[in-house]
Design goal:
The protein contains 15 helices and four strands. By secondary structure, it is an all-alpha fold.
Length: about 425
Amino acid sequence: MNALDSARWQFAVTASLHFLFVALTLGLVFFVASVQTRYVRTGDPAYGRTARFWGSLYAINYAVGIATGLVMEFEIGLNWSGLSRLTGDVFGAPLALETLIAFVLESTLLGMWLFGWERLNKKLHLALIWGVAATALLSAFWVLVANAFLQHPVGYVLDGDGTARLTDFGALLTNSALWFAFAHTVSAAMLTGGMFVAGVSAWHLRRAGADPIFRGSLRGGLRSSLVGMFLTMGFGYAQFGPLGANQPTKLSGDGEDALRLQAEWAAKHGPGDYLPNSGIVGASLGAMIMVANLLFLILLAAQLLTIRDTIIKRRWARPMLWLLTALIPVPFLTAIAGWIVREEGRQPWAVYGLLKTADAVSPMSDGALLASTLGFTAVVAGLVVVDWWLLARKARRGPGDEFLPQPLPVREEITV
């Protein structure tokens, strides 16, 4: 394996695994915020327990996910110096904003929320979790702004030395490769978080004496995932128009259009293969569409079965609880398929039509990059395993007294 292949595999594995954390955090935080809003409005302590339980799972995933994000930051600087050198002035601006929001503002608000239960005014405390949700959304937005530039570079000029300089920040924010992709990503996260909530709740409801908060969580998770699935499909199909205009080679397949595009790009940029691996892109896209349609039908059926608690009370309906738990990993796997379509589909370009991937990789030896790939992949894979172990452990235990102030132990006085 040469240096280019090692660098590509390393980033593909670590970025796709990191996105699993993002999808769950972004999907869970709005669920937690909405449940806590009900708690503040009604004063019902059941909503407070529900918000604290799912908030604890959110905090676990967020904390471990931050570590995987740091790995990616190192990779971009170490392995892709050509990308930084040519487009760093453009590509780096939104990433810097994302770093400030995720590592500073979002983390601060989350810490205050975690330790603020029963210590802060309820409305102020509620504002903190909505602040966490807003900063999580902003963090995802700035990442998509940077990624949209790689998919469809706009708002720049090339200096005499070939360096891209940002000239129009507004063009980055109105990039045609941005908004449908951002909405699709947020909707997919909503689906992922909702199915996680529904699946964990279903697992508890199969057991005798399950905590009653899981009935409400099951309903809320199914509603969230059903709406998320509908929006994910809609915004996914909406991207075909911009894709055809911005990246004509992505979905060109292997027919006459592909041969024509290959000839045009070779004439424009010189000899080379300018078509992505149509087999990988096509299979990933097909799997995404097939799974989305099937999931939509399952979620719709499950939602109907929650009427009068049929899914819990009727023996014939209870297998749906098993199915919902078994389906927890599916949105994560589908998200990786979507990542493959977006990223593999723009190859062989690091910045579509501007910088080839082969020119973006750092001038490192094959052995050094292979060792780096093995090391970073092991680190990120280990973090994924730790994350899922912690989530499963906490989810099985169910709700407790998360984040609540504990009374100080009574000290016995000894009289001599």
